Amino acid sequence: MLRKIVRFIEEEKLFYRDEKLLVAVSGGVDSVVLLHLLKEMEVECSIAHCNFHLRGAESDGDFEFVKDLAEQYEMDFYAKDFDTKAYAEANKISIEMAARDLRYNWFAELCDVFHYRYIAVGHHADDVLETVFINLARGTGIHGLTGIKPKNDRIVRPLLSFTREQILGYAKENHLQYREDSTNQETDYVRNKIRHQVMPVLQEINPGIRHTMTENVQRFREVEQIYNAEIEKNRKNLVIQKEDSLLISIAGLKDVKAPVSHLYEIISPFGFHQRDVRNIVESIYSISGKRFYSATHEILRDREYLILSAIKEQDEKEYWMEESDVEVDIPVHFKCSFLQRNPGFKFSTDPMIATFDANLLQFPLKIRKWKEGDTFQPIGMKGKKKISDYFIDQKFSLQEKENTWLLLSGNRIIWIPGHRMDDRFKITDATTKIYRLELR
């Protein structure tokens, strides 16, 4: 077993023997065997133990056992108590997920403070298979079929090539003491249901199910590599980064093979689930305007793109510009100045600059978002036009409409900043004083 773990560490490039490891030791057989093997390899190790206080005196007994083990092996020992139930309730997650978050966050802190390169944990081959079945039951993509990876950022799993039976055999052969977790026999947790109820049935169907599934997982990992390469190749043609939004090409999604899978890989990091993705893909074959939400982001089905952006609170406030202001930066950035009209004055064609007859303005000017029913008289036109119709004519996206501010004098719109002035406030031959705004 020692030769096999050395070979596995080298093949998977888990760590080098001169690197310091933090070993997560619960006191169970898996972590005890892992620690013993690393000690036999003469790897520099320290021990970290979490007391989740979920099993009363039994949890405290685990702590004492691991503490004694650290003294026996002459290794540095870190321990921490957690109120796991309170954390789970506060964050509205399961006890299993709470324990996972608490321990890995703490392990990361220890690595940062004491400069450990990796955290070694005692997951083994049976854990991989159980994870695959859990993922299948809950719904998963190709990634979920690959189970637990030997190496994930700082986490290394040197025992993944061993079954639980082999680990128990090693402990017996080397007379290793360990703690039995009584909850491992309960079926309240999903993993234990798989272990004690599902796996025995599958073994009746196929006595070699563990070997078969191990080979399947290896094939799934190879398939995942091909899958990821194809996704990344097509991502370049599908996604445009525009400021703080992602623009996902609708035409590109329609053209690519497996659009659901491509879109899932693009938007799942933003909290969207598989069921959301199918609905979003269906929307690209209908009219624009539909919106889809995760906890933190929204996707707008616009004409040419799916626009993904962080959810922002709608700003319904009104802002004011005083006559004395030379610059304002909330909610938009204007540079303001007054000029005297002279024969050499030239109108700017830059849409980011607007010049008004200052004597026609009523200060303070108002800045606000557009409202249904707003009208203005676009420069060069005789009659009024609805702002909403102007947006349609100029092919504004829904997101552009929502992000557009208006500048008003009294209750009259004088400028759609960056786009069009109102004709009623333009400079004429009678103008003597000019108010100039530059949109930054």
UniProtKB/TrEMBL annotation:
Keyword tags: ATP-binding, Cytoplasm, Ligase, Nucleotide-binding, tRNA processing
Family matches, as InterPro entries: Lysidine-tRNA-synth_C, Rossmann-like_a/b/a_fold, TilS/TtcA_N, tRNA_Ile_lys_synt, tRNA_Ile_lys_synt_N
Single GO MF descriptor: ATP binding
CDD domains: TilS_N
Subcellular location: Cytoplasm
Main location: cytoplasm
EC number: 6.3.4.19
GO cellular component, one term: cytoplasm
Binding site for ATP: S26, G27, G28, V29, D30, S31
Reaction equation(s) it catalyzes: cytidine(34) in tRNA(Ile2) + L-lysine + ATP = lysidine(34) in tRNA(Ile2) + AMP + diphosphate + H(+)
Lysidine-tRNA(Ile) synthetase C-terminal domain mapped to chain residues: 365-439
Pfam families for the chain: ATP_bind_3, TilS_C
GO biological process: tRNA modification
UniProt family annotation: Belongs to the tRNA(Ile)-lysidine synthase family.
Domain comment, as recorded: The N-terminal region contains the highly conserved SGGXDS motif, predicted to be a P-loop motif involved in ATP binding.
Cross-referenced HAMAP family: tRNA_Ile_lys_synt
Entry function: Ligates lysine onto the cytidine present at position 34 of the AUA codon-specific tRNA(Ile) that contains the anticodon CAU, in an ATP-dependent manner. Cytidine is converted to lysidine, thus changing the amino acid specificity of the tRNA from methionine to isoleucine.
Protein known as: tRNA(Ile)-lysidine synthase
Species, as recorded: Ancylomarina longa
Lineage: Bacteria, Pseudomonadati, Bacteroidota, Bacteroidia, Marinilabiliales
